[in-house]
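[Meeting: bench + compute handoff]

Bench side (C.D.) handed over the final construct sequence. Compute side (W.E.) agreed to return the predicted structure before the next meeting so the bench team could plan truncations. Sequence as handed over:
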Amino acid sequence: MAMIVYQGVEDTVSEEIDDERLNYREEHWQVHHGDDEYTYIPRERVYTVKMTDPHFIDE
């Protein structure tokens, strides 16, 4: 799971989503909500992003 916290239109938004639905491209974060629905968030409005790395195994 991933967590992104950013400045929305009126307030701070905290969104928890699957890692594969969150991408960083060309200076903005892209959240895929399904089908052709995306939210694009400029990096300047993002406070924190936490993602789990499915390729990392803690031994």
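W.E. noted at the follow-up: The mean pLDDT is 89. C.D. will use this when planning the next construct.
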